[in-house]
Vomeronasal type-2 receptor 116-like
Amino acid sequence: MPNNNQNYLAFIFAIEEINKNLHLLPNISLGYEFHNLIHSHWRILENSFILLTGQHEIPNYMCGTESQSVAVLSETLWGTSTQIGPLLELYKFPQVTFGAFDTMLTDSGQYPSLYQVAPKDASLALGMVSLMLHFSWTWVGLLITEGHKGLQFLSDIREEMDRNKVCAAFVKMVSTTVVSYLSATKTETASVNVVIIYYDIDILNDVNYNIGQHLVTWKVWVTNSQWHADMAGRNFILDPFHGILVFSHHHEEISGFQNFVQEATPFKYPEDTYLVMYWSKNFRCSLSDSDCALKNCTPNASLAWLPPNKFDMAMSDESYSIYNAVYAVAHALHEMLFEEVQMPPMRNREVTMSSPWQLHPFLKNTQRKLDSEYDILNFWNFPEGLRLKVKLGTFSPHILLGQNMSVSKDMIEWATGITQTPRSVCSESCNPGFRKTSREGKAACCFDCIPCPENEIANQTDMEQCMKCPDQQYANPQKDNCLQKSVTFLAYEDSLGKALTCTAVSLAILTAAVLELFVKHQDTPIVKANNRALSYVLLISLIFCFLCPLLFIGRPNTATCILQQTTFGVVFTVAISTVLAKTITVVLAFKVTAPGRRMRKLLVSGAPNSIIPTCSLIQLTLCGIWMGTNPPYIDTDAHSEHGHIIILCNKGSLTAFYCVLGYLGSLALVSFTVAFLARNLPDTFNEAKFLTFSMLVFCSVWVTFLPVYHSTKGKVMVAMEVFSILASSAGLLGCIFVPKCYIILLRPDRNSLGTIRNKTHSGGKPS
């Protein structure tokens, strides 16, 4: 086998290199002898006896050997070590293994004479999961050989996968038999594109071949360095292991090894029967019948001529461990002999070989403890069994996660049928704007994507929770970014602001025109009959009522917020108290005709006019208490209008606001009641009916305002208050003064004293 030949050559190279080293074991030459450990219980024990005694008939005697061995180098597996370990331990004979590191063999109580030089595989699981994350593979299969090492690897990789949110589509623990391997893989691998294979033993090349005969080729296989390429020369282009990714222990190049291999021939090392047979097979040699010597070989043949599938010139992990094992024994022996030489009784005396058990303290100092770094290799297959091994990158467990792996993606040759980096996921990633929701009874990697709720975003892929935007920001339509809200308010430039402003100014001008009309016709009966002074006060207050909404439009500030409510409360109180005074005046005017002087005195003294300052003073008191306790202030509303922060005036104390509004309602209700009772009093210019209608309109507007006000927010709420002010003021203006303006402008004949007298004397019942 090519690997065995390279292992042998690495061993010989290390021996010769040490013997040429003047500073390591000077004046001492290392020797060696080979023993085959055939996989048979009795054969293993027999070869161990031969190694220890020099013969296999009489134990406990050293016969037939001129020199004593100081250590055993073996590639023994755990099962073999349990057989030869106790035998070697009887003699305290050091055993140095160069096979894959096995945690079971680290028990110094059970294996006190066994030393391992291979690097640990403690970071292999982390490296493989890091590779999964590098390519965003979150849905992978696991095929792991049975045994304690496989179970340990399964535990390690499941822990790393859980920590990094990589899910196992299936987990199969398989034996070394072809049948169980095939049953494990034929049905399970269909759902995934990436499969991790963990090899524990070296006899799985046959399994590799059988997997290749039964599996599809468009899979990505990731495995450890115990995997060996099948060099039999079959159709490798269709091999499912074409493009396999292998984690191999990183090691430095050994200077001079390739030159040594190029010069190694069976003529130089005739005792190497494996090399003789290998040479005869690959260089068209023939064997002589007499002494089995090679003849008729290709001239100047070298192992460097062979393709990589026949012989790989690059040192393998196992060969590197053999090289280190030889040096470990050499350094331990050197330190032991150096210590003996330094002892006083030994000075100027000839150095003699000590017993093998004395080597133990020095071998313990040579064991490597650090986890190994890994090279990530990619195997390319070509026709006729040619195979190329390409280094893609490295993994180091000593660097922070995310920076511990470097892979050259452009160099990767994927499996047959894959033209670009494959995907292996249970569910496609959730794009920004969506969040993951797990599927019931499924693995964490299997999920559905649902849109983020209103005003929440997901700015990364595969987010589990959406993030709520701050109050000053709002989610864009894609819900992957928060945008800054623009500041807005009921401005004069808005269409709604323009409409309300024009309406308020127009009604104020109209009211001023009515006032001018009344002043111009102040001596006419219709103006004089309805208390001319109170009409002037009412019209002036209505002008201010119509101008009051201008305080609600525009960017709010502290002054306007306070003036909005105080101005609104006071001017409307003046207007309603004036209506109440006019109503009482009408009632008193008709009561004057009755006997008694009290009513006359009240009417002549102008007592009804005192209602206006009295009611206004009460409203001013309420407003003063409001402003002194919890006055209105500037506030923001970030929720009513999407994408905007509305600046508005907060009422401060809602209780005070409703007290002001309730007081206005009480005045309006009293005015309505008095006017309603006086509606049928006989008089040509009796305005009690109009006062009744005006109060009915006023109350209807503000009763409707309350529920609508509470159901709106933002600029609409401000606009609703402005509209209520304008509507109630327009109701007063229209119901009280429009009929009078009609008579003044269009029916002047009804506005003369003579017409009124004739109508009164001739009509019987006055109208």
